[in-house]
Amino acid sequence: MIRRLAAAVALFLAAALPATAETLIAAVSSHHVAVTSNFSGTDLTVYGSVERDGFTVSRASGYDIAVMLVGPRRTVVTRRKDRVAGLWVNRDWRTYDAPSFYAVATTRPIADTAPPGVLDAQQIGMENLILPEGIPGGVEILAGAAEFRDAFLAQQRKAGLYAEYPSAVKFLGSHLFAVSLPIPAEVPVGRYTVRVVLLSDGSPVAEHASEIEVAKTGFEQQVFDLATQRGVIYGLISVLIALTTGWLGGVLFRRD
Amino acid sequence: MLLYLPVAEWPVNMFVIFGLGGAIGFISGMFGVGGGFLLTPLLVFSGISPAVAVATVSAQVVASSTSGALSYWRRKAIDWKLALWLLSGGMIGSWVGVKVFAVLRTIGQLDLVIGLCYVVFLGFIGGFMVIESVGAIFAARKSVAAPPKKLREHGWIHRLPFPVRFPRSRLVISAIPVLALGAGIGFLGTLLGIGGGFLIVPAMIYLLKVPANVVVGTSLVQMVATMSFATFLQAAQNHTVDIVLGLLLMIGGVIGAQFGAQIGQRLRGEQLRALLGLLILSVGLRFAIDLVVTPTERYTVAVQVGGAP
User: Fold this and answer.
1) Is the CB of A230 inside 8 Å of chain B's CB atoms?
2) In this structure, is residue A99 part of a structural domain?
3) Using the beta-carbon criterion (under 8 Å), do A186 and B257 form an inter-chain contact?
4) A120 CB neighbour count, 10 Å cutoff
5) Total structural domains in chain A?
6) pTM over 0.80
7) Are A178 and A233 part of one and the same domain?
8) Contact residues on chain B for A89, CB-CB shorter than 8 A
9) Is B177 exposed, middle or buried (CB count within 10 Å of its CB: 0-12, 13-18, 19+)?
10) How near does any CA of chain B get to the CA of A186, in Å?
11) Does A11 touch chain B (CB under 8 A)?
């Protein structure tokens, strides 16, 4: 009771006080990325505005924006080769519950925008990603062997699935900002989250989140659905296509 | 032109894949082999996962063997009874192969086993072919006829129980080696994404003593059937057949094979065997180097399939 009263008082005071936080408005250029047969990657533009009114506290150091595009999480295995009897063989491994795609763009180099604790809490930057490590028993631990984690991040970066674009978010004037995030052709399909965090003096003051869908369309989707959900029919069709192609080839180029 | 493969979930250059199919088709037409042993590694090299590459190449092998099998059929150079026995073994081998494939993929040792098998089989067969054909070339140079081989000489294989009569091949042989050979080829074919022509043809000639005029036709029929079965199982169980990729490879392969066959007809038998032997040997060597030399990247990342790795 007392606590509820205190909360109500606090709310009243907050509303009455002249200093309010900024409002962050953001939008994406497209909510649907279609992976078609000739898909060779695209760009996703995220833009927005930092809304202030007369009551908004004045900020001495200006604003920083971090824009993150995060793909659906999935379980990935990172394996390390070791020499066994002269041969290089996959031995040790770690599994991670990790985003299938992660791109972050900021107004300045990531480390300059906020202290490590904030970057960690806001999941800004590859180094700060929380990657729960899976153990066969079902237990998950947060801190894994740094070596495997670094290797995983390096591989994802090399594959174009994880990327950092420091200083890519541009302010157009004092309120408007925009950034264009490249989406590579190898992008995994699924529901993506677009998170925009407004930072000031190294602390988060506002946040905006929305979702976009990366999906195969038309023919690609149908083939994929058939292959994964109706394997038997897909298998029969595949064999039939192979036999027909071979037969056609034999008929067309008959030499005897 | 970039083309997105729906099952492999990977963009490829359409003309590169088409050309790859054509080049492999050329080689397969020239030497009379399926070319799967070259195609699977090349696909893996272009970024397609080994699982999808192996399964898709089995579909491609079906297409490339079908036209050959049909042409031998018209010439009546097929021992149907022998083919039937071989492929009953092949189906069993194929079925086991798909299971083993799934297990190896889950525990992350698929690449290692594929690599080792390539080294052992390609190295062995390639080495044998080179030695044999170089010997034949030198023998021809000296214009001394090689001592005629007694093809009909019956070894221990022919003394095994359960004899079966194969009238077309004028052969009476135990069912055990026939079924075992079929099963072995079916297993390796499914596991490695190869038709196994380069394994079954010498095995039929040297082990089963099948007459040369029906060997190729019969092995092609067994390959069509066994690899059809393998394609079906891979699609139904592992969902790894990419038919868009397969079709590109098939069309390229069928066209390339015609040109290859024309070149092949101009070369002498032992020259062809020496070239093919060198080719097989070098692919085996390539896999051996990959297994032994310190890799530039020790870590690999893969989306988990199945249960715990």
Assistant:
1) no
2) yes
3) no
4) 15
5) 2
6) no
7) no
8) 109, 112
9) middle
10) 6
11) no
